[in-house]
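Fold this sequence, please.
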Amino acid sequence: MANEHTARVTGRDLPISRKHCVEIGNLIRKKPLSKAKNLLEGVMSKTVAVPMKKFNFDTGHKRGSVGPGRYPYKASMFILKLLGSIEKNAEHKGLNTESLVIKTFMANKGTSQWRYGRQRRRRAKRTNIIIEVEELYPKKEQPKAKDKNVSKPKEVKKEESKPEVKQDLSKSEDKQKKASKPNKEAKQDVSKSEVKKEESSKPKEVEQEETAKEAKK
């Protein structure tokens, strides 16, 4: 499983010398990415020599404490392009590009192809390169800025029951009572009139009975 704090790049069948790539890898391995790029730019401008510690047959010494060294321009140019590519890969992955260190540098022999021509049989140099960088100091996650324009949801306040409603209800009840009073008074008047009619009707009946008794006598 790939590490979250690493980035990787590969170069397949590059037309450069495997021996030069091995020596350049020994020079830039375990170094910061920015420093490795500066070293390769110095090699291309022939101000920094690559120490040839393994493949140093018939190689002259260079200035300083380098010992046998060379200036492999073509190999430095291709490796510098790979370093630029791996930096972009790390940036796309969200790594801190300022704290990248070259963790792995491998140079292996690529496919062997014949050179073009008839004069003699000669094979072309092909090299496969794998470079891996590691992030030493991860980026600090910055807290997300809160949007000021975002409106907070308003709190819905419960409406308290007001005493005015009760007063209105009491007023309506009073009105109903007042409206019912005339009805009662009207009923009482009706009953009184009926009583009067009965009283007025009684003397006539009594008179008729008395007249009937007198006629019998």
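The chain has a mean pLDDT of 81. The first strand starts at residue 6 and ends at 14.
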